[in-house]
Amino acid sequence: MHEIVRSRMTYDVPTLIGHFVEDVELNYSCSRLGLVPPGQWRGRDALRAHLRRVDVDYEPIEAEILSVLVEGDRTALRWLSSWRHRATGQIHCMDMAHFLRWRNGLVSEMYEFRDHHCVSRGADRLAQSLDEILNPRGSGLPRDEMARRLVAMSSFTCGPDITLFREICSPDVVCEFVGDRATIAYAGRHRGIEALINIVRDIGTEFEQLGHATPDEVIVDGGNAATRRTVEWRHRGTGRRGQVQLADFVRFEDGRIVELVEFRDSTALLRMQA
């Protein structure tokens, strides 16, 4: 994963392409800086075309990998990247997530989430001590229970289960909703279970979830878990329906969620709201 990110940020396209199978399936669930609409493509040639289209207008500056989860033949990656718009010189900082499936050591399937990075309002967790870094707290839960709780949190069929959120999240949970605060009022990082519950209530007030949100995949690695799911929502104001792809990254400590980061297909949401 580090090699893939490095090669992307240094224009090393041959190395990057070499990590993907010839018939790789590409799934983009958010607009890529307005250049590539959500959709599916297949093959290395499609990947090359997407890279070329972005590089015509944007220059990669730097990147930071935040987390990599690995379970079997699946990987979930979360990272930050900065890009300079060649025409205006404006810097765009992007939150990015990729869910990858591997075949014989190469990527055979990729799902991408990206959105503008929202500057934190001071809700970041305090820096860890050296002892906490070397001896992290355990999740306190078996793999299947972490996956079950992550799926249960995602079900809004009858509205969000506030009692469940209080049970499985730490009182000091840090939550982050990726996106631009200009279009998503609650974007950014927030601290505390009450802040999370208020945001979840607001989402449930604005959107109705139709049917069950069965996850497309769940990846658990140590005390970290990531899930990708597709839901059908209806905007209660406009009545418009749409499918929304979401991705959640969570961290468990001592049986409770202490951090939650959510990506969503912001383009699909805006279409329903308009």
State the gist of this model.
The protein has 274 residues and is α+β, with helices and mostly antiparallel strands.
Description:
With 274 residues, the protein is α+β, with helices and mostly antiparallel strands. The protein has two domains: 2-116, Nuclear Transport Factor 2, Chain: A; 130-273, Nuclear Transport Factor 2, Chain: A. The chain is 26% helix and 44% strand. The chain is built from eight helices and 13 strands. The chain has helices spanning 2-9, 13-17, 44-57, 130-134, 143-153, 162-168, 193-206, 266-273; strands at residues 20-28, 39-42, 58-71, 74-85, 91-103, 106-116, 169-177, 188-191, 207-210, 215-221, 224-235, 241-253, 256-264. Strands 7, 8, 9, 10, 11, 12 and 13 form a seven-stranded mixed β-sheet that branches. Strands 2-1-6-5-4-3 form a six-stranded mixed β-sheet, with helices on one face. The model has no long low-confidence stretch (mean pLDDT 88).
Helix content: 25-40%
Residue share in β-strands = 35-45%
Order of helices and strands: HHEEHEEEEHHHEEHEEEEEH
- What distance separates the N and C termini? 37 Å
- Return the CATH topology of the largest domain: Nuclear Transport Factor 2, Chain: A
User: Average pLDDT value?
Assistant: 88
Rg from Cα: 19 Å
| Total individual domains | 2
